[in-house]
């Protein structure tokens, strides 16, 4: 009949805070189970992990000290005829792994808390605007304490600006993937417009706050896009030259077309905003692409229409 594994907390409490290593080693050796094919060091290490887990939950006044616990395991290893260097090496590896795991867990928990706060802040700012939103409500919505909220974001202004910057960084990362791709220029423009319009659709509440309460951030958003495209002029010019050689694009001034197109696009977004975002901005994409690519004047279908159309130019 197999020996039952003891509850290590009761063993530790029984030996108490004044235990000596030999007494604790004796108690440990009675409770260690070694499976068939398992060496003594492995059995000791597994026991060590379990003992330490329960030791950490006990009050300092009712448990052996850490140094006594380590010396007790060294004594136990000697009783079992195990190599002390092997045991210490394995125990150190366990400690390092647990330490790294704890740091990773804390980092993940911290990141998750931060993301919850940002999501809650976006909801509150979108619904109430920047000036009416409160840190109390954001903390409640994120299900965190005010102290936790202020550890991540020292003020409402800091939280709002970081939220906007994070969303802009997400947009920028998506746009860069498109601008750096090997797509033809028309496919690049289509994907770029889709990303841009989808961003405003998903963040319409936040964008309204930017426009009405922080117009400097709205201007920064527009400047950001112009800057990003301008930095990629050599890549874009190569794409445009290829499209011209293929007779896809007209030979017109790129800068004039670009700034005119951006003005048109932002005019469409401002109209959507003026109507309180009551429809999906993405639904405007077919019209926007049609006008940007082909204009809004119908092409002549007959020679007579061609003459009439030419006379109006």
Automatic annotation (TrEMBL):
HTH tetR-type domain residues: 111-171
Residue range(s) of DNA binding per entry: 134-153
Keywords: DNA-binding, Transcription, Transcription regulation
InterPro entries named in the record: DNA-bd_HTH_TetR-type_CS, Homeodomain-like_sf, HTH-type_TetR-like_transc_reg, HTH_TetR, Tet_transcr_reg_TetR-rel_C_sf
GO molecular function, one term: DNA-binding transcription factor activity
Highest taxon in the source lineage: Bacteria
PANTHER family recorded: HTH-TYPE TRANSCRIPTIONAL REGULATOR ACRR, HTH-TYPE TRANSCRIPTIONAL REGULATOR RUTR
Name of the protein in its database record: TetR family transcriptional regulator
Organism this protein belongs to: Desulfosoma caldarium
């Amino acid at each position: 009949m197999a020996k039952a594994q003891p509850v290590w907390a009761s063993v530790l409490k029984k030996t108490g805070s004044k235990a000596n290593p030999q007494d604790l080693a004796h108690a440990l050796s009675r409770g260690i189970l070694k499976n068939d094919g398992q060496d003594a060091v492995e059995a000791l290490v597994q026991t060590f992990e379990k003992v330490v887990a329960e030791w950490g939950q006990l009050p300092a006044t009712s448990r052996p000290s850490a140094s006594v616990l380590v010396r007790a395991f060294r004594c136990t290893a000697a009783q079992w005829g195990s190599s002390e260097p092997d045991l210490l090496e394995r125990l150190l590896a366990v400690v390092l792994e647990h330490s790294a795991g704890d740091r990773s867990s804390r980092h993940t928990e911290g990141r998750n808390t931060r993301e919850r706060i940002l999501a809650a802040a976006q909801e509150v700012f979108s619904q109430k605007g920047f000036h009416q939103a409160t840190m109390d409500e954001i903390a409640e919505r994120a299900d965190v304490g005010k102290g936790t909220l202020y550890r991540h974001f020292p003020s409402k202004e800091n939280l709002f600006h970081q939220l906007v910057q994070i969303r802009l960084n997400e947009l920028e990362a998506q746009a860069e993937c498109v601008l750096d791709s090997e797509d033809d220029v028309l496919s690049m423009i289509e994907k770029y417009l889709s990303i841009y319009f989808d961003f405003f659709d998903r963040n319409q509440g936040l964008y309204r706050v930017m426009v009405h309460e922080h117009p400097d951030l709205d201007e920064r958003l527009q400047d950001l896009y112009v800057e990003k495209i301008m930095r990629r002029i050599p890549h874009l010019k190569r794409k445009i030259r290829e499209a011209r050689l293929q007779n896809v694009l007209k030979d017109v001034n790129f800068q004039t077309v670009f700034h005119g197109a951006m003005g048109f696009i932002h005019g469409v977004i401002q109209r959507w905003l003026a109507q309180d975002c009551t429809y999906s901005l993405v639904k405007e994409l077919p019209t926007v692409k049609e006008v940007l690519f082909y204009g809004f004047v119908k092409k002549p279908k007959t020679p007579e229409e061609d003459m009439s159309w030419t006379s109006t130019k």
